[in-house]
Amino acid sequence: MRNAEVIRQWSVLRELEASRRGTIDGLAQKMAVTTRTIRRDLEALQTAGFPIYDEQVDGKRFWKLDTRPFKGLGDTGFTLSELCALYFSRTVLECLAGTPFQHDLANAFAKFEAILTPRMRQFLDRLPAILQAKGEPKKRRGGKLDDTIARLIDATLRQRQATMRYHSFSSNRTKEYLIEPYRLLYAQGGLYLFAYVPEYTQMRTFAVERIDRLSLLETTFEPTQELALELWAHSLGIGMSEGPPQPVEVEFDARIAPYIREREWHASQRVSERPDGGLRLTLEVCIDPALRSWILGFGALARVVAPADLADDIAAELERARAAYPEVR
After folding, report:
1. Using CA atoms, how far apart are residues 97 and 138, in angstroms rounded to an integer?
2. Local confidence band at 76 (pLDDT 50, 70, 90 cut-offs)
3. Nearby residues of 61 by Cβ (< 8 Å), 6 or more positions away
C-alpha cells in the first residue's frame, strides 16, 4: 500500500511538470483515485519540498509545479522528473559497486543531489524500495587492478598496442601476449577485455583481474570494423564466438516453457510449440562453454535435439554430475 502511494505521488509530480498545470478532478481521473486522495498526494509533495501551488484561472482552480527554483537544471539540460529518475536509478547502478567506476558514479550523483533539497531527497529515497537491482557476485580485486584498468582504457581510446602477462584458467599457465585492445565489458561481477591477438590472428577474451603485468607501447593499430562486430555476436555469454554459428535445437518441458517463451535469449531464436505444451527453441549460435552452461542450468527440463555431438556432450556432463552423488538413491 505504501509503495503504491509513493509511485502515485511520483506520477502526479511528472504529470504536473509535463502538462504545466492540472486540476484536482483531472489528476484524480488520470490516477484512478478519489479527489481526496489527490489532495493528500499534493500535500505530501509540498511537504517534501516540491514547489507545487494552486492558482485560479477564469474561476477554475489549477495546480502547477514551479520550476524556477531549479534554475540549475537549465545548465544540465535535465527536466525535474528526469533528474529525479536519475537519482532513483541509483538502485540499478549500485550493482556496479566495487568496480573502478564506483567513485565516478558517486561523484555524479553528488552533483545531482546538490540541486535537490534535503526533503526532496528524503522523498526520493523511498523509491528504491520499489525497484531494486541485485548485483552479481563480484570478483575479488587486487590493489593494482585500478591502474591496469586505467591503462587499458587509455590504450583502447588511443588505439595503442600493449604487451601483457596473463594467467589463463583454461590452460592453467601464464603467457606473454601482444594485444590490440578493442573494448572493456563489465559482466558477471568482473571486467573483461576484448582484444585482437596478432599471434593468433583473432579476437580473444581476457579477465582483467588475471592480467599480471601490462605495458603500453608507442605503436598504434587501426581497429577493424568487422572484428568489432564479431564480439560475442554468436554467443550466449561474454566470450568470443568460438567457431562459426550453427543451428542448435533444444526442447523444453512444458513446466519451463512459459519462462523460455517470454524471453529473448538470442537475436536468431525461433520458437515452435509442441503438442504437450513444451516448446522447441532453435538458435544460430556457436558451441561454446556459455551455451553448454546455459543448457545444463535447466537440468532435466531441457533436452538437446541437435547437433548430435552437443547432445552427447550434455548427456555425458549430466552423467558425470550424477556420479558425483553416489549415495543418493
Report:
1. 9
2. low
3. 23, 24, 54, 55
Report the CATH number that the domain containing residue 178 is assigned in CATH.
Answer: 2.30.30
Quick check: is 241 in a domain? no
- On the CB side of 208, CA atoms within 13 Å amount to 31
* CA distance linking residue 283 with residue 295, whole number of Å: 12
pTM: 0.57
DSSP of 17-54? HHHSEE-HHHHHHHHTS-HHHHHHHHHHHHHTT--EEE
Note the pLDDT of residue 225: 61
> Does 1 score more than 50 pLDDT?
no
Residues paired with residue 213 on neighbouring β-strands, in sequence order: 165
Sheet holding 202-207, edge to edge: 202-207, 190-197, 173-187, 160-168, 211-220
Q: What is the mean pLDDT of residues 50-77?
A: 72
pLDDT value, residue 302: 95
Between 219 and 12, name the one with better pLDDT. Answer: 219
**Nine-digit cell string for 151:** 591503462
What is the tally of structural domains in the chain?
3
CA 308 to chain centre: 34
- Final residue belonging to a domain, choices 172, 198, 229: 229
Q: 68, 102, 135: which is the final residue of a domain?
A: 135
E strands, 123-254, in order = 160-168, 173-187, 190-197, 202-207, 211-220, 246-252
- The sheet carrying 21-22 orders its strands as 21-22, 60-65, 52-57
Query: Could you tell me which residues come within 8 angstroms of residue 223 by beta carbon, excluding any fewer than 6 positions away?
Result: 159, 180, 182
| Burial group, residue 39, by CB count within 10 angstroms (0-12, 13-18, 19+) | middle
Cell 577474451 belongs to: 205
Closest CA to 196 of 183, 184, 179: 179
- Asked whether the predicted pLDDT for residue 188 surpasses 70, the reply is no
Residues 6+ apart with CB under 8 A from 217: 160, 161, 162, 163
Q: Note whether 1 and 131 are same-domain residues.
A: yes
What nine digits make up the cell of 277? Answer: 505444451
